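re: the backbone from monday

yeah here it is again, tokenized this time
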């Protein structure tokens, strides 16, 4: 029995221990809907979410038991309302009360961890509308350096002031204080860092104030493993590696791939859990964006050397990714499926055996998907006489009305299917990590390209013609 298998078995066995029950209950008077959702990340590597549908009983109440091993930041989503951010810890027994007629104003918490969530709710209620992400990105792209610094420092100080005032309440737990302080300050660090990287060409960095990057010394000094729960902290680490690489072109040996270079640099700059998380994320991305053989080599080396605490789960995550990618490499049978099309008819992938399928995973709310629509129309026109080419669309819209409306209004011609969400069986079987994602499947039902080019790519015609040349 090889060492890699033993490592994975040990990690899986250690994670089977049952932890404290985590319970969320609630009562929603005058509900606008009987159904709503609580979602939270299953892990910090893949971005996959755990989603729980909640159905109110005859008393407009609900009971939910979660199996969590670490604190998680969750979203409570009620139809027609912005999500409510919750901070949930193992062993919590949290009760939520609200009136559906005035949900946000009437929302209250009781039970274990109530004070934490009361504070968090007030924080987001007061500050989210003032600093929306789209507004911040508009500032990034429109402001000169001095004005941008002024804006993000004002945002930082505003959030710190609100937090520090409320944090004087001794009932707020130390772990929530750490989480919030990290979120606030690393949001600031990240926006400061990405501004020159994504707005100014490297040759114009000299236009920045001479002390522009001085904040990085403070950012580096605050880095710690207990900050990994913060998405802003994880984002900063990722961007910092890119910054360091651009400033130190000789930091890694020549001939390394992008992932290998970043891992080499990460091993110099990071420690312990932050290093392991960053390496795992880089390898995960390499499976989808890089060369499979290179990702495979990095994965096997990483897991062999990994020393992680039980339930950190990085080895299992990468192993599952590795196995899934293997199944969808060119030359493997395309996973079959049966779904209902836009006309209510049953459609299977196997129905198209003998034809080439250009498979497109998309959604009506996805701007990059919409940008491809005119190019796809032109592509179909170029292949209009090719009867053996099928344009097959699988929408991951959770709102079927939006899906149908977009197909009609945009006049998207082809075979149209829908599954509600990226983590459903069919998208998952095709390793759909983002959209749009394209596959080319040959006449024999074999994957010809597992990362096929978009319609806007000039070379897509050649790839489709090459697939059409393969006969059954």
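seq for it, each position gets an aa:
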């Amino acid at each position: 029995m090889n060492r890699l298998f033993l490592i994975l078995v040990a990690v899986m066995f250690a994670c089977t221990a049952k932890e404290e029950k985590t319970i969320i209950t609630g009562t929603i008077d005058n509900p606008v809907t009987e159904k709503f959702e609580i979602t939270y990340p299953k892990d910090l590597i893949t971005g996959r979410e755990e989603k729980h549908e909640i159905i109110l009983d005859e008393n407009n109440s609900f009971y939910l038991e979660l199996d969590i091993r670490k604190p998680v930041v969750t979203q409570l989503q009620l139809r027609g309302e912005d999500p409510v951010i919750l901070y949930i810890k193992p062993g919590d027994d949290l009760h939520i009360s609200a009136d559906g007629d005035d949900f946000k104003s009437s929302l209250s918490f009781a039970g274990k961890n109530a004070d934490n969530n009361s504070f968090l709710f007030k924080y987001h209620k007061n500050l989210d509308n003032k600093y929306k992400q789209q507004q911040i990105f508009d500032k990034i792209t429109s402001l000169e350096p001095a004005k941008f610094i002024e804006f993000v420092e004002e945002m930082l100080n505003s959030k710190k002031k609100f937090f520090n005032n409320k944090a004087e309440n001794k009932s707020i737990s130390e772990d929530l204080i750490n989480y919030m302080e990290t979120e606030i300050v690393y949001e600031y660090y990240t926006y400061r860092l990405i501004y020159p990287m994504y707005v100014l060409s490297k040759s114009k960095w000299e236009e920045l104030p001479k002390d522009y990057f001085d904040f990085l010394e403070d950012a580096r000094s605050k880095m710690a493993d207990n900050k990994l729960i913060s998405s802003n902290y994880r984002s900063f680490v990722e961007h910092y590696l890119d910054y360091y690489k651009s400033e130190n072109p000789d930091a890694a040996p020549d001939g390394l791939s992008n992932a290998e270079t970043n891992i080499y640099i990460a091993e110099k700059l990071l420690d312990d859990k932050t290093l392991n998380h960053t390496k795992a994320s880089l390898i995960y991305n390499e499976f989808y964006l890089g060369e499979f053989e290179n990702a495979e080599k990095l994965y096997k080396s990483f897991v062999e050397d990994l020393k992680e605490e039980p339930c950190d789960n990085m080895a299992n995550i990468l192993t599952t990714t590795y196995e899934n990618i293997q199944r969808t490499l060119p030359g493997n049978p395309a996973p079959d499926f049966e779904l209902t099309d836009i006309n209510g008819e049953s459609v299977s992938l196997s129905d198209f055996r003998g034809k080439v399928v250009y498979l497109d995973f998309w959604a009506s709310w996805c701007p990059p998907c919409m940008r491809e629509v005119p190019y796809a129309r032109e592509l179909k026109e170029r292949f209009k006489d090719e009867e053996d080419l099928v344009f097959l669309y699988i929408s991951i819209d959770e709102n079927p009305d939006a899906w149908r409306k977009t197909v009609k209004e945009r006049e998207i011609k082809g075979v149209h299917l829908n599954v509600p969400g990226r983590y459903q069986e069919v998208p998952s079987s095709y390793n759909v990590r983002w959209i749009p994602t394209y596959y080319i499947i040959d006449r024999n039902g074999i994957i010809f390209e597992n990362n096929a080019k978009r319609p806007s790519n000039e070379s897509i015609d050649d790839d489709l013609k090459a697939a059409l040349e393969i006969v059954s």
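The CA atoms of residues 382 and 422 lie 30 Å apart. Residues 1-17 have pLDDT under 50 and may be disordered.
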